[in-house]
Amino acid sequence: MAKKKEATVEDKLRALYDLQLIDSRVDEIRNVRGELPLEVEDLEDEVLGLKTRMDKLKTDVETINYEITAKKNLIDEAKVLMKKYTEQQKNVRNSREFNSLTKEVEYQELEIQLAEKNIKEFKAQIEQKKEVIATTKERLADKEAHLKHKKSELNDILAETEKEEKALLAKSEEYQNQIEERLVNAYRRIRNSVKNGLAVVPIERGASGGSFFTIPPQVQVEIASRKKIISDEHSGRILVDPVLAEEQQEKMNKLFAKL
Q1: Given a cut of 80, is residue 86 above it in pLDDT?
Q2: 43 or 5: which leads in pLDDT
Q3: Model pLDDT, residue 5
Q4: 12-47 pLDDT, tens per residue?
Q5: What pLDDT, on a 0 to 100 scale, did the predictor assign at position 2?
Q6: What is the tens place of the pLDDT at every residue in 175-233?
């Protein structure tokens, strides 16, 4: 059985740059979605919060109405007692009994006055809560309409990009499996430490891609020879020569077109 040919440094550089191009394409797709998923999530939380508030306000109104009914029943009971005590006053045997019944009647009158005052306060609370319910209902309708629009926007973008993103992520994993673990780990570490996610960059106008630091001519010659993996001393990014970069970009563009 023929021995598997060991990958050259150039093979590794090409594979690393291919991986970078794939991952950068995934980054582009995710940037198109931008903050939309978070916006949708925030709006969903707001809508849920407003619905919960509406439910609580409605429960509060029901509770207050129950209290009003209880106070009305108390008034009815007090009136029955007043009538009873007034009738009893007609048959008293002495002034002490009469005064005692008079106090009972007065107490029931106070109970009625207090209950009527409570009912008035409860009704004012209901009106206040109904105003808040109306305002909350308007806000909820606005937020639900906004959420519907944002969800539609997100779904459109997902429909356009989800299939490609899944295919790219599968390709990314496939390419990582072709590169030795040590290099993949270095690539990931650099990619996670730089803002734009570029861990492998070509030389552009004598400098590391996206950087202003000039690379000495001798180092540029070494990079172009593809005999060893060279990193930019300032950013730590792995460097490739422009010709290799252009060739791999062309190859990847054909791959992306098929996805």
Answers
A1: yes
A2: 43
A3: 63
A4: 999 999 999 999 999 988 888 888 899 999 999 999
A5: 43
A6: 898 889 999 999 999 999 988 899 999 999 888 876 777 889 999 999 999 999 999 88
Mean pLDDT of 56-83: 97
Type of residue at 61? V
Q: Assign domain 36-162 to a CATH class.
A: mainly alpha
* Closest-CA residue to 19 (of 163, 169, 182): 169
- Retrieve residue 193's tokens: 């430490």
How far are the Cα atoms of 51, 52, 135 from residue 138, in angstroms, in the given order? 12, 15, 5
Q: What are 154's two structure tokens?
A: 């997100």
- Give the residue extent of every domain in the chain: 9-32+180-258, 36-162
> For residue 213, which of 244, 236, 186 has the smallest C-alpha distance?
236
d(CA 92, CA 143): 70
Q: How far apart, in whole angstroms, are the C-alpha atoms of residue 65 and residue 153?
A: 44
| β 238-240/200-204 pair status | parallel
